[in-house]
Amino acid sequence: MAKAIAVADEQSTGLSRLKARPQELKEFLENVRSEMRKVVTPTRAEVQSTTTVVLAAVFLFAAYFFVVDAIFGQSVTHLIQYLTKH
User: Fold this and answer.
1) CA 17, CA 34: separation in Å to the nearest integer?
2) How far is it, in rounded angstroms, from Cα 13 to Cα 84?
3) Torsion sign over Cα 25, 27, 28, 30
4) Residue 67: is it exposed, middle or buried by C-beta count within 10 angstroms (0-12/13-18/19+)?
5) CA separation for the pair 78, 10 (Å, rounded)
6) Per-residue pLDDT tens for 15-31?
7) What b/e readout covers 30-50, taking b as 16+ CB neighbours within 10 angstroms?
8) What was the pLDDT predicted at 34?
């Protein structure tokens, strides 16, 4: 008996959830439209300036990591040579 009631409750909530779907979709799409109205497309000058900053940062970090890697690599090489000689 309890199982039959649980199944009936599950079906009724499933049916009510199914009926609520179109309204949820409508609200979702309204919210999407509202948020998309707030989106501002950057100007060409803004895109160029941010691209320049990003490229400069990438090259600076690349140079920094190249130097750190070279120093670390040489240190490890010298350490290995020192330990194998003795």
Assistant:
1) 25
2) 75
3) positive
4) exposed
5) 72
6) 777 778 889 999 999 99
7) eeeeeeeeeeeeeeeeeeeee
8) 96
Considering just the CA atoms, what is the radius of gyration of the chain in Å?
31
State which amino acid sits at residue 85: K
User: Look-up: residue for tokens 């490890």?
Assistant: 76
Better-scored residue on pLDDT, 43 or 8: 43
Of 43 and 18, the structure prediction assigns the larger pLDDT to: 43
39 token code pair: 């989106």
Position 73 confidence tier, pLDDT thresholds 50, 70, 90: very high
Phi-psi domain of 43 (left: phi exceeds 0; alpha: psi -120 through 50; beta: other): beta
